[in-house]
Structures are given as structure tokens and as C-alpha cells.
Fold this sequence. Notes:
Chain B: One of its GO terms (molecular function) is isocitrate dehydrogenase (NAD+) activity. The structure holds two protein chains of two kinds. Chain A is an alpha/beta fold.
Amino acid sequence: xxxxxxxxxxxxxxxxxxxxxxxxxxxxxxxxxxxxxxxxxxxxxxxxxxxxxxxxxxxxxxxxxxxxxxxxxxxxxxxxxxxxxxxxxxxxxxxxxxxxxxxxxxxxxxxxxxxxxxxxxxxxxxxxxxxxxxxxxxxxxxxxxxxxxxxxxxxxxxxxxxxxxxxxxxxxxxxxxxxxxxxxxxxxxxxxxxxxxxxxxxxxxxxxxxxxxxxxxxxxxxxxxxxxxxxxxxxxxxxxxxxxxxxxxxxxxxxxxxxxxxxxxxxxxxxxxxxxxxxxxxxxxxxxxxxxxxxxxxxxxxxxxxxxxxxxxxxxxxxxxxxxxxxxxxxxxxxxxxxxxxxxxxxxxxxxxxxxxxxxxxxxxxxxxxxxxxxxx
Amino acid sequence: xxxxxxxxxxxxxxxxxxxxxxxxxxxxxxxxxxxxxxxxxxxxxxxxxxxxxxxxxxxxxxxxxxxxxxxxxxxxxxxxxxxxxxxxxxxxxxxxxxxxxxxxxxxxxxxxxxxxxxxxxxxxxxxxxxxxxxxxxxxxxxxxxxxxxxxxxxxxxxxxxxx
Lengths: 377, 163
């Protein structure tokens, strides 16, 4: 039998709960080992990274990132992959097995916006990536951009969202007509894993406080377990302040006084909502970087905005979100010097206000803005 | 959550069909929160399932000044109970109670809602107008609104402003 045994073969399909149980046995203990995989390079050695330019404005903004990386002298060699036009049966998706293998091999990648193909018989692109690469934490730093005014000036926080379970376990069923049940699954393994990453991230990035966001007063067992796991991890990082904040309070405080938050770690649903809320605080998805952390130290940075087909190919798109995501990728690779230089160049360009794309109220084209960023490096 | 929230949407659509003069649309909750913090003025009435409603109500409360100013009510088949609209942290703490600095606005406005529910619109209007005047004047404001007044001072001001 020459078919590769991939997680998408028939054998795996079936009871999700069973699959999860098996994963718990099969996967190695994740504490410590999966985070901060070291990418040491000898001078002159390049790192290979997978690039998914994506659809719509994707290719244009990916081009901007490549230009900026060249100017900054980042030793990265890109392996480009595109979403295919046919469903690959090995992945049940328009993303081929080869493109996924590329990320697994390189352990690091950058993804542009991908349009969701319509129809049945295949998994959504995001779901495919998440499952196949074991992406378990979605990390979004939200920082107020100097020079781009929103109602909030002092936002400087990071949302870390558990991305594999919780309310999005996909386990729903109809009990009788008009009555539906949806299962929320919280496991010790997934909660510990995301909490470990959150504290590791906080320590590695000089952050002082980690807040676990929950509704354990109502969902005592699920959110209660999540909190228990966070507390366990917190004990190992005594230098980092740990607190627990009820989701209602969190929402209200975010819109009244977002400067009080530092790192937030949350289960899936709250994370989804809060991370988008925070993106709104600083100016929207067009400016927000994001990266997904997977098993074995995989980091897939991505722009979370849409593919904007209406402005695609017109040199109007704002590449900031993808650029900032690429910066996150560099920091993960510990290329901190280049990351800082590129980051500062972007901030300066926006702050100066001379070169801004249309979505930020300016008139510059993608290429002009990109050139301005390059000039500032 | 296709089945659960799907059922909720189906039900909303059924009812919306009976009110053609009222515009009806649907928005995913994460997008909703993002829009709330950037352009809240686009929203009018929002109907949600339980958990999202909690989040959205508290976000909205934060936008307008906090749980101390947002009124609310709970409506059931046979009864209605009115109380402040969002829950986050305004049960208060011992300090607040001791120093008598809690903000009465939320509960005052909730009682105006109750009066409206009982079909006393003129009383409701008078109360609401008085409260709004006091807040607009800015002289008597509790700590959560940036002032130093006590509960009693704000209440007296409202009474003084009643037509």
C-alpha cells in the first residue's frame, strides 16, 4: 500500500473526541520543547521560509515584504506556494500536501489572505492549515500606531488565543427540531500548551503581566480547567504577574482603558472575539499582524485581513499587516536586529504621514509606500 | 457554530419577515466587536444569544462610560425586572459603599425604563431628561465619570432638575 498515512485518510476520520484522545497519547509532551525552537545560523547561511502569497491583493503585498526583506538584508530564502485549483485528496483541500510539507520542513512561513473557495467536499483553507500543522496558538500584538489616530492611543497588548478546541470543536447536533446542542471542549493538554506559550512569549518579549480571560464563574468546569492550567504554568514564572479577568470585565476595560492590559491568554471563542476587538482598537485588520504557533516550533505568520478582490492588481493595497506579520516571523527566528529595523521603518513611515495608502486616509500606492519603508530602513 | 447559531439566525429571520419596515441584518460577533470599537454609531438594536450578548453589552457599556451609566431590564413571559444593563464590576466594593460614591445613574435610568414598561411615558421622560441634564452639566458626577460627587449629591441634583 503506497498511500501515505496522513491524518486525512479514512482511518482518522470519525469521532473527533476519539481523535483527540489519540493525539493526547501520540503527541510528545509539549512543555518547553515546542516553543522557541532555535534557528541558529552561521554567517552567510540562509533560512528557508514558506511563503503563501494568497489571493487578491496577496501577491502584491507579498512582493512588498520581499522587497523590504531584501533591503534589510534578511537571510531568508522564500519557497512560494499557491492555493491549487483542485482539491488534493491527501489533504482534502485546495492546499496541496507539498505546500504543507514545505511548512513542516521549514518550520516557518508567511501567509497572505486566502479567499475561501466555495463548495463542498473539501476543508476550509484555514482549517486545513490549523489541523495539518497543529497550529494551537494565535498570537496578535496590538499596538497603537503613532501617527494613525484612533480613539485609543495607548494600546500595547498581545492576545494569545487557544486555537484548537473550546467552543469551536465542531461538535454540534440537533436534539429535536428547534433544539440544538453545541459542545465546548476544554482539555488539560491544550490549555497547558497555550498557557506555556503565553508565559514563554511574555518572558521572551519582556512583557510583565499575563491575564487569563474566562467566564469560570458560570462555566465552572470548562473555564475552570483552563484557569487551573494557567495557574500551574504561572507558578513556573514567578517574575511574571498573573491575573484572571472575567470576560465581561475584560471587554469593558478594553474599550475604556486598554492601556491596562499586557498579555492576554484565552480559550478559543473569547480569543476570537477579543483579538478582533483589539484589532479594532488600533485601526482594524489591515494593520494587525498575527502569527500561529504550531507543534514542533512551527510559526506561520499571517495577515488576517481579506483578499480585497475589488482593489486587487491596482497597486492600492496596504501591505502593513503582512509586513508586521513578517516582523513577528523574524522575531520568532530571533533575527531581532532586522526585525527592529524593519518595524521602526514601518512605524516611522506611518507616523510621518507622507506616504500612506488609501485605507489610512492617504493617496500613496502600494509601491510608493513600500519604497518609503525601504528608504527608512 | 453552524447548527446552534444557525438556528438562532433562522429564528430571527422568521420574525424579521413579519416586520418588513424594520431593516434586518446579521453580523458575525467578532466583526461586530471590531465595528463597535471603531464605528459604534452604525448599530441600532442588537439581538444576540446569551454569551455574545454578555460580551456585546459590556463592550457597549464601556463605550458610553461604563456600567455606572448603562440602564437595562430583564423581560420574561409574565414579569419584568429592571436593573443596570451590564454586569462588569459594578457590584461595587466596600470602599465605594462606605464612601457612598456609587453611581446611581444606571439604576435611575433603569427605573425610567420600568416606568415606560408600565406605560407611564411622561414620568419616564421627566426622569430621563433630569438625569441627562445633570450629566451634561457635569457639576455632579461620581468617580467613575471622572468626578468627586457622592451618590446623594447626584440624586439631589437629579431631583432639582425634575420639571
